[in-house]
Specification:
The structure is a homodimer of 230-residue chains. Chain A is α/β, with parallel strands linked by helices and 230 residues long. Chain A has nine helices and six strands; from the N terminus they run E-H-E-H-H-E-H-E-E-H-E-H-H-H-H. Chains A and B meet through helix 1, helix 6, helix 7, helix 8 and helix 9 of A and helix 1, helix 6, helix 7, helix 8 and helix 9 of B. Chains A, B: One of its GO terms (molecular function) is RNA methyltransferase activity.
């Protein structure tokens, strides 16, 4: 299941174009957090995707839009800044699609993108390669490229029978990494360590067996650290 | 050299967005054949690509836009119709980019695309994969996907020189994972946990900065566990 999440979109035309793209690429759900434009005015731009707009879920907070999601993928036109761990990113073709997972692709405001807080709440950050002189794509065009790459991946991998990792152990890996981090961190500025460990584990794990072994490892470490602090 | 050719575009916003995309993807030339809209009104949509609009070459015939071109690539949302040889198509990622050739990517009208005559005058037809139920992308979104794929082809092949992770932090990741494992394991049959964590971290880590952040995390966990056992 794939959900497109738009955070506070500002332009009707972008919302309409994105609804059309969701139709072009068979996206299951469109969520819009606090639209800053008139979604009704988006209809002319949605062409044959107007039913996607009718069914779009409008929510008032970011958390509402992502809380039931297994894999949260944030997008940004700023990425790989030296020294900024939060902005370490993957490329559109590296997004791992698994039909058993609920996946959200999250797009920020036209003007300022996603906040650091919003990116932090996601599992991955995707960056679309473009000219260094002017890498900022218009919102709906960023959406088109991501949805196109996901479509390629879904159609190509369907016959490949890749062994998937289930959402449950992945969620535990995220949770226990964070719990361990809370035990060892002295200040919030330590968080790049946690981001690096969680992201590398999620990126590197290959199957369910390995995922559950990692969960056991992290849980044991966490229990021991916890016990110590009692 | 890459030229984008728009044949009789009808929407200002599309022309503007396409100018922006030409800037995002360092396209050399934009030609517009008989625009059916006011190109001046496209400026607000071109953002930092407005200079591309200023330099755009407006011509009155299709032939003028392509006569000096070595490789002419037409695009269509209708392709591979059984028995219609003219519409046999290649995929965006199959476009062959050669920096020594003059290449034109040709996009048709929003309403009816390119005529059979216009496709016939080109060397290839590119078709962007999308849902069979609704494969017709909006014009500027089709442009974004094609330009993105060409960019990937030009760049990714050019510097395949992926930033490698140095052996030193990788060795530390292995060592500290094992040291932590020794602190938490009850028997040697626990070792798959360690193998899974180490392998996933080594597999998932992307660069030196991230690798050192993981080392710091593991070292902190280890020191804390060690301290507890004293």
């Amino acid at each position: 299941m794939i959900r497109v999440v738009l955070v506070e979109p500002e332009g009707e035309y972008n919302v309409g174009f994105i609804a059309r793209l969701c139709k072009n690429y068979e996206i299951d759900e469109l969520y819009i957090v606090n639209p800053r434009c008139d979604v009704k005015k988006a209809i002319p731009f949605s062409a044959k995707g107007s039913d996607i707009l009718d069914k779009a879920v409008i929510v008032s907070s970011y958390i509402e839009a992502i809380q039931d999601i297994d894999l949260k993928i944030a997008t940004s036109s700023i990425a790989n800044n030296e020294g900024d761990m939060l902005r370490k990113s993957i490329k559109p073709w590296e997004i791992d699609i698994d039909d058993n997972k609920k996946i959200a692709i999250i797009f920020g405001r036209e003007s300022v993108g996603l906040t650091r807080q919003e990116i932090y709440a996601a599992d991955f950050l995707v960056f679309i390669p473009a000219s260094e002189k002017y890498p900022t794509l218009n919102l709906s065009h960023a959406v088109s490229i991501i949805l196109y790459e996901i479509w390629k991946k879904r159609k190509e991998t369907k016959n490949q029978n890749i062994v998937a990792v289930s959402p449950e152990p992945l969620r535990f890996i995220g949770e226990y990494s964070e719990k361990i981090f809370r035990q060892i961190s002295r200040s919030n500025s330590d968080y790049p360590m946690f981001v690096a460990v969680k992201r590398s584990l999620l990126q590197g794990v290959r199957d369910n067996e390995e995922a559950w072994a990692i969960v056991r490892f992290l849980r044991k470490v966490y229990m021991k650290l916890l016990h110590q602090n009692e």
